[in-house]
Recover the amino acids of this structure.
């Protein structure tokens, strides 16, 4: 009944469709264009600045805005920027060619995505650590409404009708849409996909990995996705006489462990309502062969997509791949015709038969047999760490690369023409972005800077095998975790968060006695990711980056709340037993303990624990409350003596850490 009411209200409330300015950003983004003139505005997250670049004149300036500017939106004649560490939004104005901070608005824990209506009347902000989306009056700056959206809401997409807001989370492929007329929140079902393996068909797990976008006419929403096989085991035991598989590696473009795609959801152009049947949603396969170095070498690009932008002419989606230093232009409508001809039969690839030293045999599914669709696409090689594409005119596109801190013009017209003419054939030389303009200078040390580039790279042979499509950041998403559990050496292992001082909690990892983050980087790159050249100096730089990363700003951090104080007292009670293992400043004894029949498991730090779901080494408990209820049996500490209020207090205390 609620759903029916929402449909009627939306249909009655809007009779127009599409954008007046087709360049206007419908999704959260790191770069926007000015209302008038050839000007681009982009955020510099590490430097705490927003840059203004006149693309014609080349004039560049910056303004300090505060901690971790993350996303930016054009709100009427202003710019609103989320400040992730400030719990605030900075409001900027462009005054005679210079940016000025007009005011700040206090919001909540870790504001991330931000979008606005084209007329500037409403602004929406995702508070990732508060599980909340806020609505503001774009003119008075007054907070109007809030919506509960669980599991770390980050990325936003606002339909051109201004009646529906889409919200996406990095955990578990969770997406929702908010009926802005009635205020109701509904989940979105994503398409099912699968992969063929030696053990049979495996359902792939969907993850949303970046900023979405609507088509200019409002008829489609595009979500950047990564479909992963986290069930099939990987053997990482390094013994001289033990054959090794190729970890997460692959050598073809069929469905493998890591499968980048854009999920296209059909929406009503006038209301923004999604089609209810998930069969109407398409997962467009994006793995592609990339020809580099003037045709002298190639690789399979399959890392996660970080953002989608709709082209103003409605012909393509522009999709950035921050781990592969590339942008893909993919045809929006392909009329059911595959860009690569007939479906390819599942191929068996690998360098050796099962059990033979040096390799393994893997079965790859063709995209169509795996539940994906294919469309013509063109790869554009770019600067390092591409995130957002913005258009100054119908065929004038620019790219913001956050790791390279640059803005560069893209050869969009060439890509568009080749796709339209049917010349976007598999194996052609890739196009290349124009030389980028540096928009700021790095505020990081050289080791942290280089360590982070290695951490995010899926196309550096030191870190990963060609075609693996994986980087450290693929699983340790945003330097934290992906919310998934993986099978490693026959054991279920939840991806631990790397936020905060992980180097101070050695030994690291869940079960193995690994002495440092640098040692783990060497193990992971060679045995799981297929890298072949990481040296100690490189690994120490990755360790420097991980040590530099901050803890999450959890919702209750620093809050003076009696319930949190009671929870701390409960935590420290001897009969409850939490503090017996979770002790010291980092709340870990850095020791191993036998739990639930597993191998001895390291005690993790509890700092930032509320931002690291799911819980336990095997990810078997989805929430902190589930975990606290489970240990009423005394299996890990003992909460059996606690009242409901004491359980609430203990949970609140953990969320404050």
């Amino acid at each position: 009944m609620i759903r029916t009411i929402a449909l009627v209200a939306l249909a009655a409330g809007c009779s127009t469709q599409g954008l007046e300015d087709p360049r206007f950003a419908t999704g959260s983004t790191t770069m926007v264009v000015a209302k008038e003139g050839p000007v681009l505005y982009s955020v510099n997250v590490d430097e705490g600045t927003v840059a203004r670049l006149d693309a014609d004149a080349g004039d560049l300036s910056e303004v300090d805005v505060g901690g971790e500017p993350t996303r930016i939106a054009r709100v009427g004649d202003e710019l609103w920027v989320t400040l992730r560490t400030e719990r605030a939004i900075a409001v900027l104005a462009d005054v005679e060619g210079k940016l000025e901070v007009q005011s700040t608005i206090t919001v909540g824990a870790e504001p991330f995505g931000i979008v606005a209506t084209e007329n500037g009347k409403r602004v929406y902000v995702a508070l990732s650590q508060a599980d909340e989306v806020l609505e503001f009056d774009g003119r008075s700056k007054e907070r109007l409404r809030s919506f509960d959206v669980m599991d770390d809401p980050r990325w936003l997409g606002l339909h051109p009708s201004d009646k529906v807001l889409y919200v996406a989370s990095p955990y578990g492929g969770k997406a929702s849409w908010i009926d802005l007329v009635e205020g109701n929140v509904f989940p979105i079902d994503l398409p099912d996909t699968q992969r063929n393996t030696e053990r049979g068909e495996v359902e792939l797990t969907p993850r949303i990995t970046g900023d979405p976008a609507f088509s200019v006419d409002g008829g489609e929403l595009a979500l950047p996705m990564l479909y992963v096989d986290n069930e099939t085991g990987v053997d990482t035991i390094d013994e001289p006489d033990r054959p090794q598989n190729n970890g997460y590696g692959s050598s073809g473009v069929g469905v493998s462990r890591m499968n980048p795609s854009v999920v296209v959801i059909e929406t009503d152009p006038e209301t923004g309502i999604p089609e209810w049947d998930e069969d109407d949603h398409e997962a467009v396969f994006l793995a592609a062969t990339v020809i580099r170095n003037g045709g002298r070498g190639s690789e399979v690009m399959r890392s996660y997509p970080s953002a989608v932008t709709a082209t103003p002419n409605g012909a393509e989606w522009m999709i950035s791949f921050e781990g592969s230093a590339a942008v893909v232009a993919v045809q929006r409508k392909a009329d059911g015709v595959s860009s690569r001809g007939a479906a390819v039969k599942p191929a068996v690839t690998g360098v050796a038969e099962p059990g033979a030293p040096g390799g393994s045999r893997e079965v790859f599914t063709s995209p169509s047999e795996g539940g994906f669709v294919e469309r013509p696409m063109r790869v554009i090689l770019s600067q390092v760490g591409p995130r957002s594409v913005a258009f100054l005119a119908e065929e004038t596109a620019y790219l913001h690369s956050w790791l390279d801190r640059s803005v560069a013009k893209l050869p969009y017209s060439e890509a568009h023409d080749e796709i339209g003419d049917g010349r976007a054939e598999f194996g052609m030389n890739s196009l290349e972005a124009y030389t980028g303009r540096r928009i700021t200078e790095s505020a990081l040390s050289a080791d942290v800077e280089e360590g982070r580039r290695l951490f995010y790279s899926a196309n550096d042979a030191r870190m990963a095998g060609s075609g693996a499509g994986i980087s450290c950041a693929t699983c340790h998403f945003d330097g934290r975790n992906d919310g998934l559990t993986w099978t490693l050496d026959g054991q279920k292992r939840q991806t631990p968060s790397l936020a905060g001082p992980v180097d101070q909690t050695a030994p690291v990892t869940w079960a193995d006695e690994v002495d440092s983050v640098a040692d783990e980087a060497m193990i992971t790159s060679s045995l799981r990711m297929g890298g072949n050249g990481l040296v100690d100096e490189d690994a120490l730089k990755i360790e420097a980056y991980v040590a530099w990363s901050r803890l999450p700003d959890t919702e209750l951090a620093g809050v003076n709340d009696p319930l949190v104080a009671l929870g701390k007292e409960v935590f420290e009670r001897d009969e409850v037993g939490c503090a017996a293992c979770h002790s010291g400043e980092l709340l870990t004894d850095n020791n191993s303990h036998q739990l639930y029949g597993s191998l001895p498991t390291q005690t993790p730090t509890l700092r930032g624990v509320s931002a690291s779901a799911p819980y336990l080494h095997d990810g078997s408990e989805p929430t902190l409350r589930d975990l606290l209820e489970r240990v009423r049996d005394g299996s890990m500490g003992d909460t059996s003596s606690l009242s409901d209020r004491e359980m609430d207090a203990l949970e609140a205390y953990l969320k404050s850490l």
